[in-house]
Amino acid sequence: MKIYLTQAETRRLEILEKRYRNAARKQIENRVAFYHKYTGGSYTSITIRDQKTRWGSCSSTGTLSFNYRLIFAPPKVLDYVVVHELCHLTHMNHAPAFWNMVGSVMPDYKIQKQWLKEHGQELTLESYLEQKGIPIVLS
Ligand SMILES: [Zn+2]
Predict the structure, then answer these.
(1) Strands 63-67 and 56-58
(2) Among the listed residues 119, 125, 41, the one whose alpha carbon sits nearest the alpha carbon of residue 83
(3) Is the CB of residue 61 less than 8 Å from the CB of residue 111?
(4) Structure pTM?
(5) Comparing C-alpha atoms, which of 113, 112, 111, 89 is closest to residue 101?
(6) If one looks up domain 27-124 in CATH, what number appears?
(7) Cα–Cα separations (whole angstroms), residue 33 to 28, 39, 59, 95
(8) 1: CA distance to ligand 1 center in Å?
(9) Per-residue pLDDT for the chain (139 aa), expressed as one digit of tens each?
(10) Closest to 123 measured CA to CA, from 52, 43, 18
(11) Which whole-number Å values give the CA distances from 106 to 2, 79, 113, 135, 138, in the listed order?
(12) Beta partners for 56?
């Protein structure tokens, strides 16, 4: 179902999105700094994006990218993605050594990984607002 929004409603959604993006940046930067003490490796920058299917990535030049919609996930799930990308600074693949490292930093990571697989598609601004009882359409 497509919801048609007025210009004012669209503008308001954009402002809300920006606010959550800023919150995501702050939270992710904090968590990267925290877990970096355990993972080591060196990163050059952190970027916050909005992608439909990716939660994070780590480039060969050390740029860590994260999906801003992680701010709508339980904190432990956001932490899992942070740990996952930080471990890519050491292992640029998903070989057993990579998963061992993830598990050594976050022993219950499989629970968070599974949660993301099952609920990731529900992490949208619209469904978050709905969940919080914040109206999208103003009337
Ligand atoms: Zn990965």
Answers:
(1) antiparallel
(2) 41
(3) no
(4) 0.93
(5) 89
(6) 3.30.2010.10
(7) 8, 10, 18, 25
(8) 33
(9) 567 889 999 999 999 999 999 999 999 999 999 999 999 999 999 999 988 779 999 999 999 999 999 999 999 999 999 999 999 999 999 999 999 999 999 999 999 999 999 999 999 999 999 999 998 888 7
(10) 52
(11) 40, 9, 11, 37, 42
(12) 66
* Structure tokens given for 60: 């060969």
Ligand 1 mean position to 130 CA, how many Å? 31
Q: Which residue has the tokens 């740990």?
A: 83
User: Measured in angstroms, how far is the CA atom of residue 19 from the centroid of ligand 1?
Assistant: 27
State in Å: Cα 110 to ligand 1 middle: 13
CA distances from 26 to 71, 79, 96 (A): 10, 13, 31
Tokens describing residue 96: 């057993």
